[in-house]
Amino acid sequence: SSIFWLWILVGGFIFIGGLIYAELGTRLPETGGEYVYINRAFGPFAGFIFGWSQFIIIRTSPLAGLAIVTVNYLSYFIELTGFARTVVSLAIIAMIGSLNYIGIHRASIYQRLSTVIKVGGLFFLVVVGLILGFDRESLLDTAATPTGTLGPIGNTVAALMMVVFAFTGFERVGYSAGEMKNPMRTIPLTMFFGITLIVVIYVLANLLYHQTLGMEGVRNSTIVASDVATLLLGPIGAGFIALIVMVSTTGSMNGTFMTATRVYYAMARDGIFFKWLDHIHPTYR
Predict the structure, then answer these.
(1) For the CA atoms of 252, 90, 108, 126, what is the dihedral angle to 10 degrees?
(2) Does 3.40.47.40 match the CATH number of domain 2-278?
């Protein structure tokens, strides 16, 4: 039960955060998102630190993590080990980066497509899984063998970090506010309905995962969604879910590229990043 309360608790905080970001996005509807907010509130030096931190680690490390998850699910179809996993991970990052280079229009199409597939696929798994799961023995009450020496507080903090990471991205809605036709309406509606939907789906998905695999099974799996689908729907269903997860993770990578470039554009416009990045390509705009 602690796991589900953790997801609900974090979801509540994320919802409150979304309302705050909606307020910021409508008050400062400029391209650059958090960089613009921090720069305006705390001055150019704080904006400088935030912007370069985004470039050096904040945006690069999630890209690497998402690429690794993509390769994990790709390994369901193709066996990848050792150095091959690294090469494929780098190739995926380069591919998504190239998609953004050739134009925002193509990148935004993939973003919309991946979002629909991601939400629809996860909703399908949750609904079908919970229905089929009624005929299976529930593993919700099974306990896992404790590992490590973090203790209750340390374990809670570690779990919080992973749950918060799952919600990462809501704060980036306002990054392209300067390019929206009606940010005053679009940003609040997106925050309210988007976060609410995601919280509900995440909680139900975790209910399904733990009901099907149990705590020990979830902890030992690197492709939880596919493992659940294998038990409930067979190999074909597992492959289907693996594809959906790959679309989801590459979609998240695409969103990271789309929003990060808005930060660098705003920084270049203010003279604290490479000056040539404050220009928009006439062909690939």
Answers:
(1) -30
(2) no
